[in-house]
Every structure is written in C-alpha cells, then in structure tokens.
Amino acid sequence: MLPEEAPIKTISSREVYRNNWSRVREDVIERRGGVRGIYGVLDKEPACILIPLEHTPQGDFITLVHQFRYTVQGSYFELPQGGWEDPDADVEEMARGELREETGLRAGRITRIGQNWIAYGAMRQEHNVYLCEDLTQGESDLEPEEDGLTVHRVSVEEFERMLLDGRVRDNCTLAAWGTYLVWKRLGGSDR
Fold first, then answer.
1. 3, 22, 71, 130: which is deepest, by most CB within 10 A?
2. Residues facing 30 on adjacent strands
3. How remote is the C-alpha of 71 from its chain's centroid?
4. What is the topology classification, in CATH, of domain 47-185?
5. Which residues form the Nudix hydrolase domain (predicted)?
6. pLDDT tens digits for the chain (191 residues)?
C-alpha cells in the first residue's frame, strides 16, 4: 500500500460465519466523505501454489491437477495448491506437503518466487508461489475434499495452450505462471 491514509476506515467488525477453512466477517466501514457502508470479507490462512516443473531432453513438463470446483460447478485443470488451517504453519513445509498430498511428487529443490493476494476485492488470503524441481514420484494422500482429483503431466507448450482455450480458468494458476515467467526473465534460475 502506498504511504497514505486509507480511504476507508473500519467502524466495527463482526464474524458472521466460520468453518474449518475460513471465516466470513461483516465490517461497517466509513469512506473519506463520511458515507458508511458494509464490506463483507472472507478471511483464510495463507496458502501456496506450486509449479512442479521438469526439464527433460524431450522438453519441459509441468504437473497439473484436474478437479471439480463446487462454487463454479465445473471441472478444470490447475496448478496444485492449498493451505493448512494453521496461521503459524511453515509455508515451505506447507508447500512440500501440498505437493505430496495432491500429486505424490517430492521436490528435491523448492524455491519461493512470489507472493500474491487471492481475489483481494473480497478475500484476505496470501498465495505463496513455489517453483518445485528435481521431482520424484511417490504416493499421493488426498483429503476427502479432493475426491475425484486427478494428476496430469503435460508439456509446457500444451499447458500454455490450456491457459487460453478454457481448460485452465483458475486465475491463481495464471498468476503463478506469470510470476514464474517474469522471475525467470529477470534472472531467476530453474536449471
């Protein structure tokens, strides 16, 4: 945030819903001109999104997951991602755990390349972007909420086509890939 006074101040806040993964609060706010309103906020613990990338003589490959997303009543491809319901969780440990849980992959090298807010117009949750390399395959350990999740290894070229043809519609996946491309162009090393 720029060093200026916030144009909106919180008058009061109350939690209206809570479950194991998130909290919803309703804030009474006041804008600079004195106009009051209501702001609904979804609060979630920090999460991570993973870019499992392999460099082979045949080309570069990325591992995606495909799963049903209830909120949009559709199934899509996306990068593995998730979080733990622990505000004090070690983020790199969480990243390694989510990678193993969803894909069965273990990363010999993991690099945090960015941190983004997810849908910050309505939600307060950080997404830590990790590049995962030197991958070895093990067993996955899906949670009940991930029922039906499948794992897919695709070429980077195919993945980038998927970003444009509608098979990938997750904005976090797109943001993470964009973060990776900029990181790499500005001197990040993934080899």
1. 130
2. 9, 36
3. 16
4. Nucleoside Triphosphate Pyrophosphohydrolase (3.90.79)
5. 44-176
6. 455 678 999 999 999 999 988 999 999 999 989 999 999 999 999 999 999 999 999 999 999 999 998 889 999 999 999 998 888 889 999 999 999 999 999 999 999 999 999 999 899 999 999 999 999 998 887 776 767 889 999 999 999 999 999 999 999 999 999 999 999 999 887 55
- Give the tokens for residue 168: 């990938």
The domain spans of the chain are: 8-43, 47-185
How far, in Å, CA of 180 to CA of 166, rounded?
20
| CB-CB contact of 88 with 135 (8 Å) | no
pTM: 0.89
Interatomic CA distance for residues 103 and 47, integer angstroms: 16
Q: Are 41 and 89 in contact (CB under 8 A)?
A: no
CA 31 to chain centre: 31
How far is the C-alpha of 58 from the C-alpha of 55, rounded, in Å? 8
Task: Tell me the C-alpha distance between 163 and 182, whole Å.
Answer: 17
Residue for token digits 């444009």?
A: 164
Instruction: Take residue 12 and report the two structure tokens written for it.
Output: 């009061």
